[in-house]
Design a protein that fits this description.
The chain has 171 residues and is an alpha+beta fold. Helix 1 (11-24) crosses helix 2 (36-48). It is globular. The chain is built from 4 helices and 7 strands; from the N terminus they run βααβββαβαββ. It starts with a strand and ends in a 9-residue tail after the last strand. The chain has helices spanning 11-24, 36-48, 96-110, 126-134; strands spanning 2-5, 53-58, 61-70, 80-87, 115-121, 138-149, 152-162. Strands 1-2-3-4-5-7-6 form a 7-stranded mixed β-sheet. Helix 3 (96-110) links the parallel strand 4 (80-87) and strand 5. Helices cover 30% and strands 34% of the residues.
Length: 171
Amino acid sequence: MQIRAATEADIPEIQSIYAHHVLTGAGTFEEVPPSVEEMADRISKVLERGWSWLVATDASGVLGYAYYTQFRDRSAYRYCAEDSVYVREDVRGQGVGKALVARLIDDATAAGMRQMIAVIGDSENTGSIGVHASLGFQMVGTMRAAGIKFGRWLDVVTMQRPLGRGDADIP
């Protein structure tokens, strides 16, 4: 497996992976998969800001992808990143997500971020919760019944980990 920056050629596979999660999972609260063009626009906006959008690949193609953005748009959040990670269904549980998030942590730290937040859809999403916990994220809260998808209420789990010097000083 290789982890590298996403390219334009990866966009159709990235869109396909995400569409599967939108249509079958509660890890994202989107209910209609974005088009390839919309996904390309999302990737472009992340990269224009200097943030990372990564793919994990092997001979079979894109295994998964991950990216980070600033947690919220207001300037006070400029040192706080939020990660997102999605893995192709046939390779879930094989370490792809963990490898992608580990690389995001490195990239965000190198970019000067001081905190990383994971906003995980569905408190039953034990795979994502476990990956983040294994990489040093701590549970900071659960928003109960924050969304509805597939005819049921869904919680949102928030996890956090410091990056670099964390809150030891002001950048």
